[in-house]
Amino acid sequence: MPRVTGVRWAGRKADRGSRFSVLRLSKCSSDSAHSSGSDLWPVWPSARSAGPAKLLTVWRRAVLEVFPAAGIREPVRASALAGAEERLGRSLPAELKQLLLESDGLLGRTHVDTVWTLDQIVERNLLFWTDESFAQLYMSFDAFLFFGDNGGGDQFAFVQKPERADVFVWEHESDSRRWVARDLQDYLGRSLRTGGDDWYRQW
Length: 203
Hints:
It comes from Streptomyces triticiradicis. It holds the Pfam family SMI1_KNR4. The protein is of the alpha+beta class and about 200 residues long. The protein is about 30% helix and about 15% strand.
């Protein structure tokens, strides 16, 4: 496994011979994976339906309702978001931008980076997309926009090619990519409410 500054790794290398057999981009068939999420997320206005005045508080309020000890940071500036998108060469998902305008990343249970800071999002995605050693070990990450991790090497991402709201997990030991949440709100509800960092493996 290559040594990468700023990215935490655990476990062994992926088996190059089996990587193509474990790619799973279809949604989980588990009933729990397709639940409405009403038991996982408080009843706050959706960030997608909230008016401009509510967008400045809806994410913070909802996060703290699920997990009062969540690590909230200072918000990023709109100019910083624009600069990040220019460096990445693509737009960030709308819900992620709205959250970052309220808090520059989120610390979840056991202080994992449930949502990375804007700087981490830029630096780590550029690394995943361009690092030659990754290209030799794993299938392409070009379709993904990573934004958080579980503290043990697995990373969470949006699929942007084609663009969709769903959240997937990349499991670094097997190079599998599988569906874990309908959107950012569903992801936060599931990851912050459950006790373990491997919450996505419980289905």
